[in-house]
# Entry
Amino acid sequence: MTERHDQVKAEFDVGIRSGEGGGESTLTVVIALVANTLVAIAKTGAAILTASASLVAEAAHSWADAGNEIFLLLADKRSRKPADAQHPVGYGREAYVWSLFAALGLFVAGAAVSIWHGVQELLSPEPASDFLIGYIVLAVAFVLEGISFMQSVRQARSEATHYDRELLEHVLATSDPTLRAVFAEDAAALIGLVLAGAGLGLHQITGSPTPDSIGSILVGCVLGVVAVVLIRRNVGFLVGEEVSPAVRRAALRALLALPEVDRVTYLRLEFVGPRRVYLVGDVDLAGDRAEHEVAGRLRALEAKITASPAVAGAVLSLSAQDEQSLTVDDPTPEPRG
# Structure
């Protein structure tokens, strides 16, 4: 029986990857924090020396990113708190709360400041100077941001392969908001650096500060789009988001592999934190036991399911005789009225 239980637990873990992913997310955020802090300091110095609108926007962007990493570290730490009497399924959803704060910070401190400064420069232009310093800082920033971005890509690609998804598809779908935030922020940072470099170069070539100001506005627009996407995804998980069809199939397969279960007629899995779900299902138990034994068998079955680190809790009920069985090929439950 122990061997069979371990096999079922492994199947649940295959459906919802857990364990090492959390530690890697922490590393990804720490690398991003160090990179963004160094970049923010360098950009601020370059912005002061050059008076470039694009560099001012990029400095605001990097300081916003560095501050956001603090929120993401809080999200990662707080979401790992164990369950207690007041929070029986744990604190996993705190990850989305703090990540939402980070996304709002990116929108206000990054996008709004960059666009506002660019508009101000268009209305009251100031010529830039010391262009070489600006180019050097942008190049160094590109390398540092690239290192952070490649760490998030490496983690996302590994997980995407596990779930049989494309890279960008997984970044948008993952229940880990810290991975999504770092990936999106670093991608936006690299795009912003290219825009800032182009604006600075056109400023030097034409002698007009207008391209530089437009570069600042474009950087802000990129940050605004990224922030809106991150806000929407975090709100979706806070409201309650169902798992993907692939994960549902894996969970159903694991349930049907249990010797106590003859069939499953209803199955709902909702994310309650990064890589953690809450399971609700209706099952038809094997055999014909007395009614007073049924509750005990269901509780034992729930305990077996929640032994998986990916399952925060499970509630099972008995299936009605006229309910249609779910199959691995069609694991989606009918909506309940």
Notes: The CA atoms of residues 242 and 270 lie 5 Å apart. Residues 131-163 form the longest helix (33 residues). The domain at 18-239 is CATH 1.20.1510.10 (Alpha-lytic protease prodomain-like). The beta strands are 261-273, 276-285, 311-318.
